Each structure stands twice: as structure tokens, then as C-alpha cells.
TrEMBL record:
Annotated protein name in UniProt: Exported protein
Domain of life: Bacteria
Taxonomic lineage of the native organism: Bacteria, Pseudomonadati, Pseudomonadota, Gammaproteobacteria, Enterobacterales
Residues passing through the membrane, by range: none
Family matches, as SUPFAM superfamilies: Thioredoxin-like (SSF52833)
InterPro entries: Thioredoxin-like_sf (IPR036249), YtfJ_HI0045 (IPR006513)
Pfam family, one: YtfJ_HI0045
Length: 212
């Protein structure tokens, strides 16, 4: 009678363990690769392209805020992104929330201190009151009107339907900064809070652009 093969130690168990570990590692590596592929898409969700104009969009519900100093009256008119060329410009798009306004306040303060020539530069603030805490939209508009009274040379747009955020693919509850040259082409864009280095980068860039 032939001797039957025998297994020494724990070979069957070790083999199954190795197979299980290999399968686990393959799944883990696959998930890592997928996450690396899609992470840039999540970080850069907006569709604003460098050296191109911003995606076309218009605002009719509220729109651009006008202030008549003689009568102390405010009025709204339709606004369209086709009106952006003509000056070096910083577009500040913010949700109608204090937290969003504060996100890039250091840049706005730096712009005020830069004393850029008003005939060549303008700040355009677009406020998405569709992305505001429920019941606060009226208070947000009052705050914007106060800012327009204080800085009549700046441009303020109230977007009650969130058209701009949708057209540009911007993040909710956030603040986005876009720098345009006089031709309306994008020279800098970030959806989120700027670092101190990025604030300085934008200020340096603005000083160069207003000379064009």
C-alpha cells in the first residue's frame, strides 16, 4: 500500500492566509489608485479656466446694485458676465454667510491698502443669497447696501438664485477669488481661502495688470 502524502506544519492554513492577504492588499491598492485619480477633481471642482473668460452667466433676480448718492436710494439692474472686461478686476464670489465673507477678508483688506487706480481697477463682489442661512437674506442685502454706500466705486451683485455659483461650479458656503486682466481673461482663480502667500501673489499680480 502506497504511503499517502502528508502535510507538515500548517501549510494549508498558511497558503489560505497568504491568498487572503494578497486579495486584501490588491483591494487596498485599487482603492488608493482610485482616490488619487479622483482627488484632483474634488479639489478643483470649478470650471473656470486660466487665460480664458469666465463661463457666461447672467443675474436678473436682484442683480447689480446701484446707489444714487443725491437721493440715497438703491436700485438693482440686470448683470451679465460679458460686462467684466475693461478693467483689471478681482471677483469675490461669496455665499451669503458671515463665515464666507471672512474667508478671504485678508485679501480684501490688502486690496484696500494697495490703493490701486480706480480708473483701471475694480473689485466685483457677487453675493449668493440663495446660499444663506434661512431668514437672513434681507440682513445680507442690508449689509451689502451699507458696503456700497461706503465704497461706491466697487461693484456689488446680489444673486438671489445662485446662477453664478451654478454656472461656475463653485463650492457651497465658501468664497472664491478670480483675478481678471483688462481683457477679461482669468489670471488667478481659487475656490476657498487664500493663504498669505497667495494674497501677496494676487496683490503683486494686480500691480502688474493695472500697468497694461
Amino acid at each position: 500500500m502506497k504511503n499517502l502524502p502528508t502535510f507538515r506544519g500548517k501549510c494549508p492554513t498558511s497558503l489560505s492566509t497568504r491568498i487572503s492577504l494578497q486579495g486584501h492588499n490588491m483591494i487596498k491598492n485599487s482603492l488608493l489608485i482610485i482616490s488619487l485619480i479622483f482627488t484632483p477633481l474634488l479639489v478643483s471642482a470649478h470650471n473656470i479656466q486660466d487665460n480664458q473668460r469666465v463661463p457666461p452667466v447672467g443675474v436678473r433676480d436682484k442683480g447689480e446694485l446701484d446707489y444714487d448718492k443725491t437721493t440715497n436710494q438703491f436700485n438693482y439692474k440686470n448683470w451679465n458676465s460679458s460686462q467684466l472686461p475693461g478693467k483689471t478686476r478681482v471677483i469675490q464670489h461669496i455665499a451669503g454667510r458671515t463665515s464666507a465673507k471672512e474667508m478671504n477678508a485678508p485679501l480684501i483688506d490688502a486690496i484696500k491698502q494697495a490703493n490701486l487706480p480706480r480708473e483701471r481697477y475694480q473689485t466685483t463682489t457677487i453675493v449668493n443669497t440663495d446660499d444663506a442661512i434661512i431668514g437672513t437674506a434681507m440682513f445680507v442685502r442690508n449689509s451689502i447696501e451699507s458696503s456700497k454706500r461706503e465704497f461706491p466705486w466697487s461693484q456689488f451683485i446680489i444673486d438671489s438664485k445662485g446662477n453664478v455659483a451654478k454656472a461656475w461650479g463653485l463650492t457651497e458656503k465658501s468664497s472664491a477669488i478670480v483675478v481678471l486682466d483688462p481683457q477679461g481673461n482669468v489670471k488667478f482663480v481659487k475656490d476657498g481661502a487664500l493663504t498669505s502667500a497667495e494674497v501677496q501673489q494676487v496683490i503683486d499680480q494686480l500691480h502688474q495688470l493695472v500697468q497694461q
